[in-house]
Amino acid sequence: MQRREFVAGMGAMGLLAAAGDAVPGMTAQNTTTQGGVIPRATSAGALKGDMLYRELGGTGQQVSAIGMGGFHIGRPNLTEADSIRLIHAGIDRGITFMDNSWDYNGGESEMRMGKALAQGGYRNRVFLMTKLDGRTREAAEQQINESLRRLQTDHLDLIQHHEIIRFDDPDRIFAEGGAQEAVLEAKKAGKVRFIGFTGHKDPHVHLYMLDVAARHGFHFDSAQMPLNVMDAHFRSFAQLVVPELVRQKIGVLGMKSMGGDVILKSRTVTAVECLQYALNLPTSVVITGIDNDNVLNQAFDVAKNFKLMNEQQVAAILNKTREVALSGKYELFKTSAIFDSTAQHPDWLGGPAPEVRQLAPHGM
Predict the structure, then answer these.
(1) Which residues contact 116 (CB under 8 A, 6 or more apart)?
(2) Bridge-partner residues for 55, per DSSP?
(3) What ranges make up the beta strands (E) of 102-155?
(4) Is the model's pTM score more than 0.85?
(5) Is 75 left (phi over 0), alpha (psi -120 to 50) or beta?
(6) Quick one: pLDDT at residue 21?
(7) Which residues touch 113 (CB under 8 Å, ≥6 apart)?
């Protein structure tokens, strides 16, 4: 299947969804809005203490419905001691899903999390995920090993191919000499348990990643994407990607529920509504940035008191955001390069795969 044919096919699927037809095999409920069909979770999850827990796709792993975002805990406005304290506080209260990435804050995020998890047996209490940017086997292998060293662990519970935002990313990753070879080798060696991917640009790129993986006989364990009150109206991951992930029993990891607080600047919804909406989708985990005690408390309050919203409640939230969301103004990760770290650092990708270099004209 060529990329043009694939996009056309996915466009047809989007029209079917907009017409109100659920994707075949989907187990979640649906909310039909003016913008299309939004899937809803069939269960709030299992409440233990102050935290909800959900299954991570078809992995058999139970994880906290709220995940601690790795980017925020490595920011310069936080001291290392404060970051470690917040990580410990989150785990002590029930957060088990830890998010991170090889590139966050120049590696500072992984190093701080590694120091926190190395203390007092905290590593054994969490499901640890990080991401890699490399597209070649060599670059991916180097980044995986560096992440393991920084995180002070002998294995990652989940590794994800990061920033799948271009249509050539899936092809490069699965090419001969591509990053997937390094990830599979790491899994074989016991360094990695589960494998996923992330992206924030266009839902069709996510669907293409799933298509390329299937053609190579591979099934992902998770996929991460922006899921928020604006997404429902513009290039919607919730409408196009989430139903397919549910059908394939791939864990749905939601991020950017507030768009790094940009969505809150629209003054249409509150932070609590943003989290509630994301949890109401069939997400395994909603990853949120936590850089102070107030935000940490807010996340636990939402999780502890969360009840599934019905179709009317979801529609009420989405009606408030529809007008300001249609242009993508508040989803800069879709409409600008501000969030595209690999575009700003193409060297992280490791250059073209070996077979591409061999075919390229001389001197290129």
Answers:
(1) 83, 84, 87, 88, 122
(2) 62
(3) 127-132
(4) yes
(5) beta
(6) 35
(7) 70, 73, 74, 83, 87, 98, 100, 151
